[in-house]
From TrEMBL:
Organism: Aspergillus vadensis (strain CBS 113365 / IMI 142717 / IBT 24658)
Name of protein: P-loop containing nucleoside triphosphate hydrolase protein
Residue segments, region Disordered: 607-647
SMART domains in the cross-refs: AAA (SM00382)
Signal sequence residues: none
Listed Pfam families: AAA, AAA_lid_13, DUF7025
Length: 753
C-alpha cells in the first residue's frame, strides 16, 4: 500500500528511507532546472545505519555514519562521431523527516510541471521534450545554419544572430585548445558495466546485536541488470536501445527504431559557432530556430521583396552582376564533377570568387555582402583584420583556419575594412610586406566566395588587381537614393510599431522634403546610409520622449501615441552638422577632399569645400544656428574659376572676396586684406573694417585684374601661386588680358595642364 502511494501523484513529500521506492529503473526524471530529462537505470539504497565499535571510545563520536542515496541516470548525447548514452549519478544526502519531492536534485517526470510552474499537463510537457529530441537528431545529422536567440550555456553571453551547429569541429577545437577541460561527452555502452555500490558493514547497535543484517546491494544490482537486459531485443537484426548501446553517425540505423522514450532523454545542449563573435559556444537547443525557408513555400515570393538585398539602394547592373557571379559559383561547386574541374593550369588554384566593394563609408558595401548571403541562404562569416593577428605567422594560421571553416560550411566570407592586408608594399616595412604576401598566397587557393570592403582603395597593392574577379564602386548617395533610404527606414519603423500594436504617426512628406533640402544645401555634410538609419532611430527616440510629456518614466508607456515629425530631424541634423563642422575646421577641409588628398579614393563632391552652419532654408524655421566664423579663420576653399568679385560701396566696410587661386585652391581672402572702395575698379587693401556693410554689388573683373590685385596686396602670396614655367601651356586669352603675367591662372596666358 505504501509503495503504491509513493508511486502516485499524491505523494508530495518523501522520507529518506523511502527514496529507494520512489525511483526505479526505467523512470523518467528531470533535473532541477527542468532542462535535461534522464532515465533511471539504478538506485543504491541507504546502508543500514550503524556505529563503528572503534568510534565508541571517542568523546562526541557517537554520531552514526551516513551514506547518500545515489540515483544512476542516463541521457543520450552526441560527440561528433557517436550517438549514445552518457551516465550521470545524482547523490541525495541523508536528511531527517520528510522533504518535498520537487526539491530533490532530480524528481519524477510527473512532478515536473509542479517544479517548473507549468500550467499544462504532464503529457504536453513530455511532448515538448519529444519534439526537442527529434530536433536534436535533425541538427546533428549535418552542419546546420541556424538562428540563436538567448544566453549561451558556458559564458552566459546574450546572442541574437546566426550560428553554425558543428559538433565534430567544435569538439576537435576544444580538445586542442583546452586539453584539461574537454567538452566531449563520455559516451559508452552500458551492457555488462557494473555500477558502483556502497560496501556493507556489520551493525553493532544494541537492537541488531547478534543478528545478521542483509545488504541490499545484490537486489539493487539485480534490478539494474534486469532492466538493461529488457532493452536488448531478442532478434539479432534489431538494434539495442540507444539508452544502453551507442551508434556511429555514419550508420544507416542512426535514428532507426527510436521511440518516444528515447527522444525524451536527448541532450538539450548543442555545440555551435557564433558567426558574429566568431566563437565556439555551448548552446541551448530550445533557443535555436531554422532560418531557411521551406522549399515550395508559396509565400517565398513575397518574402523575397523583404530581403535585404532587394531593399538595397544599388544600381540594378551591380545587383545583376553580383547575382550572376554568385549563382554561377554555387552551381559549379554543387555539380557532380566539381571536384575534377580545373580552372587554372595549376590544379587547385582559381576556384574562388573574390569581389571587391569600395567607396565612402555608409553607402552599402557591408550590407551588400549580408544581403547576398541572406538571398542565397548561406551563412555570412565576417572577419576583421583584428581577428587575424599582427604577425605573418599568426595571420597565416588564422586565415587558414577561418577559410577552412567558411569553405566547410559553404559560407560567404566577408573581410570588412581589408586595408591592412591589402596595402601597398614598401622596401622599408618588412612586417607589412609579410602580411600582404601571406594574404596573397592564401587568397590564391581559397575556393569559396570572399567579399572585400574598403574605403581606402588608393592604398591597395597592385598585386591584388589580378586576383579580384570584380570590383564595384559605391558612389556617394544621390538625392534619389537618399529619399529611398529615408522611405525604407520610415517603413521599418511603421512595421515595428504595428507588430507591437503601438500608435505611430509620421509626417513622411515633410520629412522627405527636409531630407532633400538638407542634401542640396549641405554638400559636404550629407548623410550616408548608416547615418540616415541612426538619424531615424534618434528622431524616433525623441518623438517617444515627447509623447511621454518629456518624462523619462513615461517613455515606456505602450499606449502613448508617438508623432514623428520634421522637428525631431532638425534637432538631429543640427547636432550632426556641428560635429562635422568641427571636423572640417580641424582638418581645414571636408572628409571627401581629405581622403583624396591622402590618396585614398577619388573625389566625388565638386562644390564648395566647407558648408557653414548658418543660412536658414525653407525647412529650418525656428532652428538655432551657430554664428558664422570669421572668414580669416576659415581655410581657403576650392571653387570654380570666376572673373566676378564681390565688392562693396564705401559705406559697406569689410568683407571677404571669393577668388580663384592658380593652383586650384581657392577661398575667402581675409576681410582685412581685400576691401572695396568706391570709384576704383580694383580692391583697395587700405580700407578699414570699421564701416558697416549696407549694400553689395557684383562687379566683373578680368583675369589680369585678379592677378594684379593679388600682386599689389601681397607679393609673397602672389609668388606662392605662380605656376612654374615648365608646367605652363598656352590658353585662350581673355579679352584685354595682360601677356606679361605668365603663369598666373586666370590671366588668359597660361595655366596648369
Amino acid at each position: 500500500m505504501k509503495m503504491e502511494w509513493l508511486r502516485s501523484d499524491k505523494c508530495q513529500k518523501v522520507a529518506f528511507a523511502d527514496l529507494w521506492y520512489l525511483f526505479k529503473p526505467g523512470d523518467e526524471v528531470v533535473d532541477q532546472g527542468g532542462r535535461q530529462a534522464y532515465r533511471v537505470i539504478g538506485v543504491t539504497s541507504p546502508s543500514h545505519q550503524f556505529i563503528s565499535p572503534y568510534r565508541t571510545f571517542g568523546a562526541g563520536s557517537n554520531k552514526p555514519e551516513t551514506s547518500p542515496v545515489i540515483i544512476f541516470c542516463v541521457y543520450i548525447d552526441f560527440d561528433g562521431k557517436i550517438l549514445g548514452p552518457v551516465l550521470r549519478q545524482f547523490a541525495i544526502p541523508r536528511f531527517d523527516g520528510e522533504k518535498a519531492v520537487t526539491s530533490l536534485r532530480v524528481c519524477p517526470m510527473r512532478f515536473a510541471e509542479v517544479r517548473l510552474g507549468e500550467d499544462s499537463s504532464q503529457g504536453s510537457f513530455r511532448g515538448k521534450l519529444i519534439s526537442r529530441g527529434r530536433q536534436f537528431i535533425n541538427v546533428i545529422s549535418s552542419q546546420k545554419h541556424m538562428h540563436y536567440s538567448g544566453l549561451t550555456l558556458d559564458s552566459r553571453e546574450q546572442v541574437d544572430g546566426q550560428v553554425v551547429i558543428d559538433f565534430e569541429r567544435a569538439l576537435e577545437t576544444k580538445d586542442r585548445d583546452q586539453k584539461n577541460m574537454t567538452w566531449r561527452p563520455k559516451i559508452g555502452s552500458l551492457l555488462g558495466v557494473d555500477l558502483p555500490h556502497l560496501k556493507a558493514r556489520e551493525c553493532y547497535e544494541f537492537c541488531c546485536r547478534q543478528e545478521q543484517v542483509f545488504a541490499d546491494q545484490w537486489a539493487e544490482v539485480k534490478r539494474t541488470e534486469n532492466y538493461c537486459n529488457s532493452l536488448v531485443p531478442e532478434e539479432r537484426w534489431r538494434e539495442p536501445s540507444l539508452a544502453i548501446e551507442p551508434r556511429a553517425k555514419g550508420a544507416p540505423s542512426l535514428d532507426r527504431g527510436l521511440g518516444e522514450e528515447d527522444y525524451v532523454i536527448m541532450s538539450y545542449r548543442v555545440f555551435g559557432f557564433i558567426l558574429r563573435s566568431r566563437k565556439w559556444a555551448k548552446l541551448n537547443l530550445t533557443h535555436l530556430s531554422y532560418i531557411r525557408r521551406p522549399r515550395g513555400d508559396t509565400s517565398a515570393g513575397d518574402q523575397q521583396q523583404d530581403m535585404a538585398f532587394h531593399q538595397l539602394v544599388l544600381e540594378e547592373e551591380h545587383k545583376n552582376m553580383l547575382l550572376s557571379l554568385v549563382a554561377q559559383h554555387y552551381r559549379d561547386k554543387e555539380s557532380p564533377t566539381a571536384g575534377n574541374e580545373q580552372v587554372d593550369i595549376v590544379r587547385g588554384k582559381g576556384k574562388g570568387l573574390i569581389i571587391l566593394l569600395h567607396g565612402a563609408p555608409g553607402v552599402g558595401k557591408t550590407t551588400t555582402a549580408e544581403g547576398v548571403a541572406e538571398l542565397f541562404e548561406k551563412p555570412l562569416f565576417q572577419i576583421t583584420c583584428g581577428d587575424l593577428g599582427s604577425t605573418a605567422e599568426h595571420v597565416e594560421r588564422a586565415l587558414e583556419t577561418n577559410f577552412a571553416l567558411a569553405n566547410r560550411w559553404g559560407c560567404i566570407l566577408l573581410l570588412d575594412e581589408a586595408d591592412v592586408f591589402l596595402a601597398k608594399r614598401s622596401p622599408q616595412d618588412f612586417i607589412r610586406n609579410g602580411l600582404v604576401s601571406v594574404f596573397l598566397r592564401v587568397l590564391e587557393y581559397y575556393a569559396g566566395i570572399l567579399f572585400l570592403t574598403t574605403n581606402r582603395i588608393g592604398d591597395f597593392d597592385e598585386a591584388f588587381s589580378s586576383r579580384i574577379h570584380i570590383s564595384l564602386h559605391y558612389p556617394q548617395l544621390t538625392d534619389k537614393a537618399t529619399a529611398e533610404i529615408f522611405q525604407l527606414n520610415i517603413r521599418l519603423m511603421r512595421d515595428r510599431f504595428r507588430r507591437k500594436n503601438r500608435r505611430l504617426t509620421i509626417d513622411e512628406d515633410e520629412i522627405l522634403a527636409y531630407a532633400l533640402d538638407y542634401w542640396k544645401r549641405y554638400e559636404t555634410m550629407r548623410w550616408n546610409g548608416r547615418q540616415i538609419r541612426n538619424a531615424c532611430q534618434t528622431a524616433l527616440a525623441l518623438a517617444e520622449f515627447d509623447a511621454g510629456g518629456g518624462n523619462h518614466e513615461e517613455i515606456l508607456d505602450p499606449n502613448a501615441e508617438v508623432k514623428l515629425s520634421v522637428t525631431q530631424f532638425r534637432t538631429v541634423a543640427k547636432a550632426y552638422r556641428e560635429f562635422m563642422y568641427y571636423l572640417n575646421k580641424l582638418y581645414k577641409t571636408d572628409q571627401d577632399r581629405l581622403a583624396h588628398k591622402r590618396g585614398l579614393r577619388a573625389r566625388e563632391l565638386h562644390g564648395k569645400e566647407m558648408d557653414t552652419l548658418d543660412g536658414k532654408g525653407p525647412f529650418d524655421e525656428g532652428e538655432t544656428h551657430l554664428p558664422s566664423q570669421n572668414l580669416s579663420e576659415q581655410h581657403q576653399s576650392p571653387s570654380r574659376l570666376t572673373s566676378t568679385a564681390t565688392v562693396m560701396s564705401p559705406q559697406m566696410g569689410s568683407t571677404g572676396l571669393a577668388a580663384e587661386y592658380p593652383n586650384g585652391l581657392a577661398g575667402n581672402y581675409p576681410s582685412a586684406m581685400l576691401q572695396a572702395q568706391a570709384g576704383y575698379g580694383f580692391l583697395n587693401p587700405t580700407m578699414g573694417p570699421q564701416q558697416q556693410p549696407q549694400q553689395q554689388q557684383q562687379v566683373p573683373l578680368n583675369p589680369h585684374q585678379n592677378a594684379q590685385m593679388l600682386h599689389n596686396i601681397n607679393p609673397a602670396l602672389y609668388q606662392q601661386f605662380l605656376v612654374p614655367q615648365s608646367q605652363m601651356q598656352p590658353a585662350t586669352g581673355f579679352p584685354g588680358a595682360m601677356q606679361g603675367q605668365p603663369g598666373f591662372m586666370g590671366d588668359g596666358t597660361h595655366h596648369k595642364p
